[in-house]
Amino acid sequence: MTDHTLLIVDDEPNVIASLKRALFNEEIEILTATGGREGLEVLSQKPVQVVLSDEKMPFMSGSEFLAAVKARYPQTVRLMLTGQASIEAAMLAINEGEIYRFFTKPWDDVTLVFAIRSAFEKHDLEAENRRLLQAVKRHAVEMKLLERQFPGISDVKRDESGMIILENLSDEELQEIVSQCEEELSEHHPD
Questions:
Q1: Which domains are present in the chain?
Q2: Which of 58, 99, 117, 164 has the highest CB neighbour number within 10 Å of its CB?
Q3: Helices (DSSP H) in 100-155: which residue ranges?
Q4: Residue 103's pLDDT is what?
């Protein structure tokens, strides 16, 4: 099973079928919906990384749908495909739904497939950035705890080559500090 799920939202079954054919060789799960309301229902039930939506649909336009997706699922990358290529529709989609790419019907399969791959890459990079930011924040808290327990521990002196200089510490004193740090960290993060 793949970690990449695409939701296609279009009220024309033949368009959905054509898109699925174009994406046949891609290692992604493809979900479909025939309108914005159904698309939001699908999103509420399953994590989706990329959404490709038509603009002109009954009851809810693609711009309205993508704006709702942005509000409820901001990490989901949004793309638009439309046969109604007006400047107004494009501006609305870009401004309200903050879409990643905008395509017109008929589309070029190769260009669309590459754009969808790129959308998944964008999603994955942003998810990794969020994960790394959380790790940095967690490490900053750990450093504050260590500094509180051992004032001056975060003040590191280095020589010209970048090596850490340990002044006036015996091996036993250094080992004692390391042991105390490990004990303190295990109390706060018993992983």
A1: 5-129 (3.40.50.2300), 139-188 (no CATH)
A2: 99
A3: 109-149
A4: 84
